[in-house]
Design goal:
Two copies of one chain form a homodimer. Chain A has 233 residues and is of the alpha+beta class. Helix content of chain A is 46%, strand content 26%. Chain A contains nine helices and ten strands. In chain A, strand 3 and strand 4 form a beta hairpin. Chain A starts with a helix and ends in a 5-residue tail after the last helix. Chains A and B meet through helix 3, helix 4 and helix 5 of A and helix 3, helix 4 and helix 5 of B.
Chain lengths: 233, 233
DNA sequence: CGGCACGTTGAAGGGCTTCAAGCTCTGTGG
DNA sequence: CCACAGAGCTTGAAGCCCTTCAACGTGCCG
């Protein structure tokens, strides 16, 4: 119970809340563990609860009718998952699939409503998060509409480098996560074959070093050039 | 001043508010008219105000570096524009371009903050709107990632038919707005040539009847079949 | 009536997908 | 410990979807 409070406090969204509020939330929170490939919730289910990710990695994925999976976003510890749907009480817009073994706190959306109405700063933060995600989604739409696969993949790698990149002594950046060609493809509306070909080409040119579910960026700047479609070399 | 109140009351978002609140909002609101192709706000500007659309039509468009414009969403009377950015105080995620001569009410984001903190139901509605738009954006991402241009165009037409379709006696649906090939292209990440070819093909098959900036759907059901990629005919 | 935005159509080509075959690792159970 | 199954990856060939460029209609409005 106390560890649940501590866990909540360490997330950006629930930090610095009045003790009373934190108590109520921690009291209602239920710990939940899930292994790789498990679904925390499924697309289409009525959303009564949302989740705080404590450890591991989770992605939000939409299934298209033809069986293609599309990754909407991936979450790291501290992120809130499914809060939009849970607050409104509609269905989840996608499934939450565990990428790396995860611990989560499950919280009821209804309680969140009550608390938000009493604690304005909390409402502010939620709105801030949802708006930020909306803007990310808009960026994603622009990229899918106007850019080539190459460019989008480069962009993904640059973004991942900023988020989970381990800078090496020689200036290269190692991406600290399991990342298959398939994953990259589903994040960018492409096929795994195309991703494989692009990475192979980059490897031939010495831009990256890639292996099974693992990628190291050798020339970060060159990747940015591709991602931003800058003219000169 | 009284007409501003009335205008606000007739939008879904500001209906049924306490008179005191409505007063303050109406008082701060400033009427604004804009002609076709004008920009209500520009991508990248600091967002201090948001807008309520009273009449006309407006689209939110992102400009890519290579000069391609991508339409994120289009707004009809009663919609709120730029509220996400204005509440957070960051920059606008895109430009708001007037499609048909529009009247708007401009409201300061800071005031909205204050009012939201006092009036929980209002905060609820804002959040509901932003979440709904996030989910729309996610759908759009899935479509762009997994579907062909044909399918996306069909989907756009079906959606427009629901929103601004005038049902005729013979079962056809006339889209009551100016809609160029270019517009359809920018809504779906395609080129105007491709859209033209697709519409020509559909016209040959008797699915639609299209002219200059004007489209009538002759066989709505057949279009749905294409949009949803249903197997049989 | 001339200008201009919108629209059509063709031809060429490129980017990406699809299908298919084979390879390389990883992990697991005998 | 080794072998093997299977997941992940690579590569080729064929082809389609869509874009790009270009030239030419068409209709609207000043």
């Amino acid at each position: 119970l106390i560890d649940k409070q501590k866990a909540l406090q360490q997330t950006e969204i629930f930090a610095d809340l009045p003790a009373v509020i934190l108590d109520r939330l921690a009291d209602a929170a239920r710990k939940h563990a899930a292994g790789t490939a498990e679904l925390v919730f499924r697309q289409g289910e009525i959303a009564a609860t949302f989740y705080v990710l404590l450890s591991g990695r989770v992605r939000l994925v939409q299934h298209s009718l033809e069986g293609k999976d599309v990754t909407m976003s991936t979450f790291v510890p501290g992120d809130v998952i499914g809060i939009g749907a849970a607050l409104i009480g509609e269905t989840y817009p996608g499934s939450a699939e565990v990428l790396e073994p995860a611990e989560l706190l499950a919280l009821p959306g209804s309680l969140m409503w009550q608390v938000m109405n009493e604690c304005a700063p909390l409402a502010v933060r939620i709105l801030r998060i949802v708006v930020a995600r909306l803007h990310e989604a808009h960026d994603h739409i622009r990229e899918l509409s106007a850019e080539r696969v190459q460019q989008r993949i480069a962009r993904s790698l640059v973004r991942l480098a900023r988020k989970v990149g381990l800078k090496q002594a020689d200036g290269s950046i190692c991406l600290d996560l399991r990342l298959s060609r398939q994953d990259l493809a589903q994040m960018n509306g492409a096929t795994l074959e195309t991703v494989s070909r692009i990475l192979s080409a980059w490897e031939r040119e010495g831009l990256v070093d890639s292996g099974r579910e693992q990628i190291t960026i050798l020339k970060p700047h060159a990747l940015v050039v591709i991602a931003e479609d800058l003219p000169a070399l």
